[in-house]
Amino acid sequence: MMPVVAIVGRPNVGKSTLFNRILGQRKAIVEDFPGVTRDRNYAEVTRYEKPFTLIDTGGFEPVTEERMLVQMREQSQLAIEEADIILFVADGKEGLTPSDVEVAQMLRRVDKPILYVVNKVDGDAQEVGATEFYALGVETIHTISAEHGRGVPDLIDDILALLPEAAPLRDNEGEVRLAVIGRPNVGKSTLVNRLLGFERMVANPTAGTTRDSVDTPFIYNKNNYLLIDTAGIRRKGKVSQRLEKFSVIQALKAMERAHIVLVVIDAEEGVTDQDMTVAGYAYEKGRAVILVVNKWDRLEKNNRTVSEYTETLRSTFKFLSFAPIIFISALTGQRVNKIMGEVEKVSAEFNKKISTSHLNQLLADAERGHQPPVYQGKRLKLFYITQTAVRPPTFIIFVNKAEGVHFSYQRYLGNKIREAFGFSGCPIRLQFKDRERNE
Fold first, then answer.
1. Same domain? 156 vs 180
2. Which superkingdom, per the lineage (predicted)?
3. What stretches of 261-323 show up as alpha helix (H) in DSSP?
């Protein structure tokens, strides 16, 4: 499991700039579907010798002048609960403020590594002014300019030195890991209890590999499964209940270990921004996804309700067009028994391998049906396709100019692969590589 580094501090001290600087890039939109990527508060940083999850607490809640101290206290408390390392960022140009002092006093009671960072220190004059932050009673102050990169390499070195080793993922051969994720109060706990209460043998529950989930091995149709239950999280205070967006952190950790993700949605409330965020991460991580609409028994229905709700979900989750949708009531048990059957189907699709000969026949047919685009005055030529991985199904297509394959044509080929071979519930990955044509 990746350790977590959280950035805390007042608004406008440069937390997001530091977030992007450590990440090494601005979060780029890599799909043209809404909801897949957006301005994020989370990112996996993998460009250093130790990977970690980076969190920017700045955008979780709207902040007003009257509420500033309260919001800082809440966000910092959440970071304290979830993070392995905390970066406390202050504004070197504005100087030490009462808000900084209050948070620093709280952090002194925490038994976790804390790095105190003074941002917007662009030169010697600001360097001298930053010495006032030693009044916080700390031994070391990191003076940086997140915008220009000044001092950031040294800060990253100290972060890496403090990072705990990532916990290894359990890798029982043949075991399918199933994560139940969703916002608080959508019915995850009830669903988990229903799933484990059906006719299957349940092994002894054991503590998960992270501090905030419970893993339960069980057997269904003679196959081994591991249920990763984010509903079993023990919240450490009312703060966590008020700021539910931090449940995204827990979902991220669960998805890191899962093969298949059940995204639970409240039928009454409909799809929220947080549902989109969590589902977007599942897609980006290459996890198989099943959309589970819970509390279906509470809706007044007619003969068009299912089709209209399905159409709404498909329109909202365009990037999850491959995901099966199941309407259930975890409370009454309605259609819950269909979930594991769907999990079995999706698991088989997730592990499916297509022969190279069948793939290349498909590629030839697709090219005849819709020619590749013209790039730099020449029409692209697709030479060869092969499947290189499962979970998620991944394909490499060799082409004369890989950079010229427009996203729309990539989607066309992806759709052709789905039409021919299915892959229900699974994202598929297409990679294009250059190959010079032999004359």
1. no
2. Bacteria
3. 273-284, 305-316
